[in-house]
Automatic annotation (TrEMBL):
Species this protein is from: Sulfuritalea hydrogenivorans sk43H
GO biological process: cellular response to cold; ribosomal large subunit assembly; RNA catabolic process
Record-given protein name: ATP-dependent RNA helicase DeaD
Predominant location: cytoplasm
GO CC terms in record: cytosol; ribosome
Annotated motif Q motif, positions: 10-38
Limits of the DEAD-box RNA helicase Q domain: 10-38
Span of the signal peptide: none
Similarity comment: family membership: Belongs to the DEAD box helicase family. DeaD/CsdA subfamily.
UniProt keyword terms in alphabetical order: ATP-binding, Cytoplasm, Helicase, Hydrolase, Nucleotide-binding, RNA-binding, Stress response
Catalytic reactions on record: ATP + H2O = ADP + phosphate + H(+)
CDD domains: DEADc (cd00268), RRM_EcCsdA_like (cd12499), SF2_C_DEAD (cd18787)
Listed Basic and acidic residues bias regions: 464-497
Length: 621
């Protein structure tokens, strides 16, 4: 029997769900059920078996998770429900969803079990007791064979993405598991397609199932161009800021992260880099939320960092970019996210950050949006410099066209005469002053601006061979561009910082505001200075650690731009705030070195006659 979903369902409270579940749904911002949820929840609550044909991303996890949770007896810490998934990633995702929906069910335990995770960890968790198991077929079979998983009390079984399990060759394993479960269990099978093999499994193991077919809730997003950037966690912030710099037609953006804490942390980091940004999360009152949205509409902020829940219903015409800083849990959330741009016939831009372990989501999203998502590489420092120079040049041109500059002509002319400085030098100094907070040139870009070339072109950034620093850089410092030949280690900067060279000369002693009380090690100081400022280890002298500060010997007479970099470098979350130490400020508190003892003239002379063999050679034989 095939049923059609009630598309006009008023809310979850009409489906017969218990109050703890309704409260959890309200916490995460769910107001009305999706078609598959409205169609599946009532028959599953009534105890019927179910055969559901639904695409990934239609909300089917909640469709089976909510009835399953309502039937759990929290007093019995034994496996009462088993959910089989084709991949470990989906197993983790489903387990996290169950934990989220069971937020107001104290004592509830769900355990994901899958290959690649320590068997000892899983055995320990199983021995402590759990209510729901979410697992891949192979690892579930392993536990059943060794009797560490007992399904005698199983009341519900869910087969999620059955066609994927068929495609991956797990269908025989699934049948074996089904044969080792109680015959009176309730079974729900979900599949995006219904090949004959899946239907045979359903006929064999389901009892008079309700059949529900849902057309995919996602649709082609024709007005939004989509790209993805593969990057490691430690590089995401740097990749994000560089992409924001070079994106064309940027007006405003909404950046999606997974947690409320992450909205605040990322907003703070972007604000420190000069962006007008605000966080939007569930902790904000309705008044503050509306205030953020109004500021975005008015143009007083350009970026909002939000969670999925906080961004529900957000419709601001000027949003040109949606950036998935954290990959969404499912394709439905992705489609909802990028729906914040490209509305009412406008064009939009969607960018997705993916870690290597998250690349499996790419094909699912492409299938859901019916679009190819193009690869996007992190812009180089030279490309960012090009864009900054072009923007600065345009600002100068606009000012020349729109402002009266007679007074300033006189100022420059007077400086030329009184200070004997060329107008070109004055212009360069003024450009430096104007861009001091946002330098036109990033570390790693070319050292020289073009002379006779095109007015806004900057040569591509050169690359420099250098050994990676041993010390890990601080996470709050700007992350760096990955090397193309292999991925960077998380938390380590791999920006090709140009190795600076210094003429042989004296070293000066500099003070840095971090010491023993912060737990710093000399090698961390050396690594940070070498990695971020490009000063080679051979040019770094003695380091002395004190309680609240340290001193380090570096080449004397460092340039202002290099001193600025040294001031901003962070080690263990502390800015170095480097400055030259005043004469007499440094006092070496180390005890004087003891002179070597005089050789005792009475001791025998250890010299051997010519040709004699040493005693240790004889012993070695």
């Amino acid at each position: 029997m095939t049923t059609s979903p009630d598309l006009n369902a008023a809310g979850f409270d009409t489906l017969g769900l218990a109050q703890p579940l309704l409260k959890a749904l309200a916490d995460v911002g769910y107001e009305t059920p999706s078609p598959i949820q409205a169609a599946c929840i009532p028959p599953l609550l009534a105890g019927h078996d179910l055969l559901g044909e639904a695409q990934t991303g239609t909300g089917k996890t909640a469709a089976f998770a909510l009835p399953l949770l309502q039937k759990i007896d929290l007093k019995r810490a034994v496996p009462q429900a088993l959910i089989l998934t084709p991949t470990r990633e989906l197993a983790i995702q489903v387990a996290e969803a169950l934990q989220k929906y069971a937020h107001h069910m104290p004592g509830f335990h769900v355990l994901p079990i899958y290959g690649g995770q320590s068997m000892v960890v899983q055995l320990r968790a199983l021995s402590r007791g759990t209510h729901v198991i979410v697992g891949t077929p192979g690892r579930v079979m392993d536990h059943l064979e060794r009797k560490s998983l007992v399904l005698n009390n199983l009341s519900m079984l869910v087969l999620d993405e059955a066609d994927e399990m068929l495609r991956m060759g797990f269908i025989d394993d699934v049948k074996w598991i089904l044969e080792h479960t109680p015959a009176e269990r309730q079974t729900a099978l979900f599949s995006a397609t219904m090949p004959d093999v899946i239907r045979r499994v359903a006929r064999e193991h389901l009892r008079e199932p309700k059949e529900i077919k849902i057309r995919s809730a996602t649709s082609t997003v024709v007005t939004t161009s989509q790209s993805y950037c593969q990057t490691h966690t430690g590089q995401k912030l740097e990749a994000l800021t560089r992409i924001l710099e070079v994106e064309d037609d940027f007006d405003a953006a909404i950046i999606f992260v997974r947690t409320k804490t992450a909205t605040v942390e990322l907003a703070d980091k972007l604000e420190a880099r000069g962006y007008s940004v605000a966080a939007l999360n569930g902790d904000l009152t309705q008044g503050l939320r509306e205030q953020v949205i109004e500021r975005l509409k008015a143009g007083t902020i350009d970026i909002v960092v939000a969670t999925d829940v906080a961004a529900r219903g957000l419709d601001v015409a000027r949003i040109s970019h949606v950036i998935n800083y954290d990959v969404p849990y499912d394709t439905e959330a992705y489609v909802h996210r990028i729906g914040r741009t490209g509305r009412a016939g406008r064009t939009g831009r969607a960018i997705l950050f993916l870690a290597p372990r998250e690349m499996y989501m790419l094909k699912l999203i492409e299938r859901a949006t019916k679009q190819k998502i193009t690869a996007l590489t992190m812009p180089t420092p030279g490309e960012v410099a090009n864009r900054r120079v072009a923007q600065f040049t345009q600002q100068v041109v606009d000012i020349i066209k729109s402002e009266k500059l007679d007074f300033f002509f006189d100022v420059v002319r007077r400086m030329e005469g009184e200070q004997d400085i060329a107008a070109r030098e004055i212009a360069a100094a003024l450009a430096w002053l104007a861009t001091r907070e946002r330098p036109l040139q990033m570390p790693g870009a070319s050292d020289h601006a073009p002379r006779e070339a095109a007015p806004v072109a900057v040569p591509p950034a050169p690359t420099f061979e250098r050994k990676p620093a041993r010390a890990k850089t601080d996470e709050s410092a700007p992350a760096a561009e990955s090397r193309r030949e292999r991925p960077a280690k998380e938390g380590r900067s791999d920006t090709p910082v140009k190795q600076r060279s210094f003429a042989p000369g004296t070293l000066a002693r500099y003070r840095i505001e971090i010491g023993r009380n912060q737990g710093v090690l000399p090698k961390e100081i050396v690594g940070a200075i070498a990695n971020e400022a490009g000063i080679a280890g051979k040019d770094i002298g003695q380091i002395n650690l004190f309680d609240d500060y340290s001193s380090v010997e570096l080449p004397a007479g460092l340039s202002a731009d290099l001193m600025d970099i040294l001031r901003r470098i962070r080690v263990r979350q502390f800015a170095l705030k480097t400055r030259v130490m005043e004469p007499g400020e440094f006092v070496d508190t180390r005890p004087p070195r003891r002179a070597p003892p005089a050789r005792d003239s009475k001791k025998p002379d250890w010299k051997k006659p010519a040709g004699a063999k040493p005693e240790w050679k004889k012993r070695e034989r």
